[in-house]
Design a protein that fits this description.
CATH architecture: Alpha-Beta Barrel
CATH superfamily: Glycosidases
Bound molecules: 6-O-phosphono-beta-D-glucopyranose
InterPro entries: GH (IPR017853), GH_1_N_CS (IPR033132), Glyco_hydro_1 (IPR001360)
CATH class: Alpha Beta
CATH topology: TIM Barrel
Organism: [Ruminococcus] torques
Largest sheet: 9 strands, parallel
EC number: 3.2.1.86
GO molecular function, one term: 6-phospho-beta-glucosidase activity
Number of strands: 15
Enzyme class: hydrolase
Helix content: 25-40%
Strand order of the largest sheet: 7-5-4-3-1-13-12-10-8
Structural class: alpha/beta
Order of helices and strands: EHEHEHHEHHEHEHEEEHHHEEHEHEEEH
Length: 477
């Protein structure tokens, strides 16, 4: 069992969930800086300003900002060939509206990418991972306003220019299709002007949500087309959360409901970003939802010109869709669904389904026929130190092993898989709950939900296991 020789093994993180240093070196306030911590039962909230009595986990996070050399050295020790991270827009343009970029922010990422290169690690950079300047929420209601497109372009062109010799692989918006769901709306479209409360409950009408998403799709297409024109060495990718959904029963009504669900959740955005136009099935959905999108001929042209080179997704779980009443529902970070009686779930209720990954990769590849990278996957779990002071995370190894086996089977099915970057390769703040307790890493960080912890790093059992997986190109699992 072996993956292709140049398979990009690595790990993934996001600026707002691990950098900390939220107001250091000229950085502006971004949306996650106003998001509090929470738990599965006590929802993470957004506030309109920093409140004295609330805890904001992004402010320090795991302080990658001051630990990046140590962390990248550990990634290199595991043998990473790629490291997926994101740039925080507010380090480069603190409010998004400045004329000139913040040099100190540019220097920070330059140092990070140079440090990766020192070890032969290829950076894979997400331009927007669940953050935008909060000033743009106040002024424009986030992505609801098309003026944000030009500001995003300015930011992207600045970082393309600066890092053109350091970064080859770029992703535009993290989990862009999450914008279709209530939680994703806040995290990604940020249409939350004046709103305080649970991030999953921000009141956004379907009309505003899809207009905002349209603006993101246009912005993505514009920067992809620009990159292709100016930097032919770049490889531009999309990024989707793939929420595999099966019909719960063979009742044709369930099959149709699952198809509709998959169209809107899993295929709509990537169809636009890869095929270059709105898919026909969305017409009916928009009509049923009372959504009216005015898409000009010029915009249609933009979408056509800005299609991506490779497809990427996160994959954590699957669920079932049914029209039958009374079925138990699952918990998930972005979309729910009915429980699958054949699957077990994580402590956070995410149904574990490695076969679903193989199935999904086949579906994706048959549809698009372009290279695919799984840029997030992993098990969020509570890691407890054993008596010997170590973390024996066999449950994580088991999860990852089964998903790597499934990826391998997909490659045998003919899928062109170019890489794998498990999520949170070092422990970081959870996006859905704002917790540290939900850990994904190969590297444990001594940081806890009450804000305590000395930020020291320790290897879990999965560290050496993954190192060996990479060294044997996936043969030794
Ligand atoms: C993806 C996001 O949805 O899942 C990440 O791109 C996120 O930002 C990851 O952290 C895991 O989700 P959570 O809620 O467990 O952090």
């Amino acid at each position: 069992m072996a993956f292709r020789k140049d398979f990009l093994w690595g790990g993934a993180c996001a600026a707002n969930q691990f950098e900390g240093a939220w107001n250091v070196d000229g950085k502006g306030i971004s949306v996650p800086d106003l998001c509090t911590n929470g738990t599965k039962r006590n929802p993470k909230c957004i506030t309109t300003e920093i409140r004295e009595n609330r805890f904001y986990p992004s402010h320090e996070a795991i302080d990658f900002y001051h630990h990046y050399k140590e962390d990248i050295a550990l990634f290199a020790e595991m043998g990473f060939r790629v490291f997926r991270t994101s740039i925080n827009w507010t380090r480069i343009y603190p409010t998004g509206m400045e004329e000139e970029p913040n040099e100190k922010g540019l220097v920070f990422y330059e140092n990070v990418f140079k440090e990766c290169k020192k070890y032969g690690i290829e950076p894979l950079v997400t331009l927007s991972h669940y953050e935008m300047p909060y000033a743009l929420v106040e002024k424009y209601n986030g992505w609801a306003d098309r003026n944000v497109i030009a500001l995003f372009e300015k930011y992207c062109y600045t970082v393309f220019d600066r890092y053109q010799n350091l970064v080859k692989y770029w992703l535009t918006f993290n989990e862009i299709n999450g914008g279709v769901t209530p939680l994703g709306t806040t995290l990604s479209l940020s249409t939350v002007r004046g709103y305080e409360g649970p991030v999953a409950d921000a009141p956004v009408s379907p009309q505003v949500r899809f207009e905002a998403l349209h603006h993101q799709l246009l912005a993505s297409a514009k920067v992809v087309a620009y990159a292709h024109e100016h930097y032919p060495q770049f490889q531009m990718g999309d990024m989707n959360v793939f929420l595999t959904a099966y019909p719960l029963t063979c009742d044709p009504e369930d099959v149709l409901a699952a198809q509709k669900h998959n169209h809107v959740i899993n295929w709509f955005c990537s169809d636009v970003q890869i095929r270059g136009e709105y898919p026909s099935y969305m017409k009916r959905y928009f009509k049923e939802q009372g959504i009216c999108l005015e898409i000009s001929e010029e915009e249609k042209e933009i979408l056509k010109r800005g299609t991506v080179d490779f497809y990427t997704c996160s994959y954590y779980m699957s669920s079932c869709i049914t029209t039958h009443e009374g079925e138990a529902t699952v918990e998930g970070n972005l979309a729910g669904g009915a429980k699958n009686p054949y699957l077990q779930a994580s402590d956070w209720g995410w149904q574990i389904d490695p076969d679903g990954l193989r199935y999904s990769l086949n579906e994706i590849y048959e549809r698009y026929r372009i290279p695919i990278m799984v840029v997030e996957n992993g098990l969020g779990a509570r890691d407890e130190k054993a008596e010997d002071g170590q973390i024996h995370d066999s449950y994580r190894i088991d999860y990852l092993r089964r998903h790597i086996e499934a990826m391998y089977e997909a490659t045998e099915d003919g899928v062109d898989l170019m890489g794998y970057t498990p999520w949170g390769c070092i422990d970081l703040v959870s996006a859905s709950t704002g917790e540290m307790a939900k850990r994904y890493g190969f590297i444990y960080v001594n940081k806890f939900d009450d804000g305590t912890g000395d930020l020291s790093r320790e290897k879990k059992d999965s560290f050496d296991w993954y190192k060996n997986v990479i060294a044997t190109n996936g043969q030794c699992l």
